[in-house]
Write a structure and sequence with these properties.
about 220 residues, mainly alpha, Heme Oxygenase, Chain A, about 70% helix, binds 12-phenylheme
């Protein structure tokens, strides 16, 4: 199943990399305001995902992928405190695309739990793969001091990201799922990629506004 997930989402990955906000992010053009919206949305996404895995800890399939060392909620809380300030909880809100994403995670946690595997794969394996590159870019783009605002990318309880990914893939392969279920999970992973893209697209609009505002203010 791990191979089918990788092959089956390759195209979605390429598409996601090509969203304007991400292209700019990769070039190092991102402001703190847009970035805190980005991380803020992920606070709600990971909260829903991790709540789902907590509730389903005893589930015969989903319970086998219970790895709290992957969880991002508390690291994102640290980053939001840095970017937004101590009162971030009263200001940070999920965007419309974020609400769709969160609702989908809640719905499948309730009605079709095996599909949560697709969401964990898309985010966590992605975080473990591209995270270190994104961390460097974020630090450089926003001129962040060492160790500030990048907790999102640090897996303190996972010393070897590559080894952990291998273990995780092996665990997915050992779930013993039938082909119909695997196909449904691959389809859900592509939907997860699409919802990520929708989040990035929203930010693209916000980012353009921020840049216009900056330009205006410096005239
Ligand atoms: Fe990725 N990704 N990713 N990625 N990614 C890799 C593998 C995965 C980037 C780099 C890499 C996203 C984004 C970016 C996944 C999900 C998501 C690998 C490793 C690299 C180097 C390939 C390997 O091991 O052979 C970069 C750079 C990104 C920014 C442009 C977003 C779209 C994630 C989904 C939401 C997943 C699931 C994998 C694992 C594949 C596998 O099964 O092996 C990214 C795009 C990040 C936009 C932020 C914004």
């Amino acid at each position: 199943m791990s191979v089918q997930l990788r092959e089956g989402t390759k195209q979605s990955h390429t598409m996601a990399e090509n969203v304007g906000f991400i292209k700019c992010f990769l070039k190092g053009v991102v402001d703190k305001r847009t970035y805190s919206r980005y991380v803020g949305n992920f606070y709600f996404v990971y909260s829903a995902l991790e709540e789902g895995f907590t509730q389903l800890r005893q589930h015969p399939v989903v319970g086998k992928l219970y790895y709290p060392e992957l969880w991002r909620k508390s690291s994102i809380e640290q980053d939001l405190a840095y970017f937004v300030g101590p009162n971030w909880r009263s200001t940070v809100q999920p965007s419309p695309a974020c609400q769709v994403y969160v609702e989908r995670i809640r719905e499948i946690a309730k009605n079709d739990p095996v599909l949560l595997v697709a969401h964990a794969y898309t985010r966590y394996i992605g975080d473990l793969s591209g995270g270190q590159i994104l961390k460097k870019i974020a630090r450089r783009a926003m001129d962040l001091p060492e160790g500030e605002g990048t907790a999102f990318y640090d897996f303190e309880q996972i010393p070897h990201e590559g080894k952990f990914k291998q273990r995780y893939r092996a665990q997915m392969d050992a779930l013993g799922l039938d082909q119909v279920t695997i196909d449904r999970i691959v389809a859900e992973a592509n939907y997860a990629f699409k919802m990520n893209m929708d989040l990035f697209k929203e930010l693209e609009g916000n980012w353009l506004l921020s840049m216009a505002r900056l330009t205006w203010n410096s005239l």
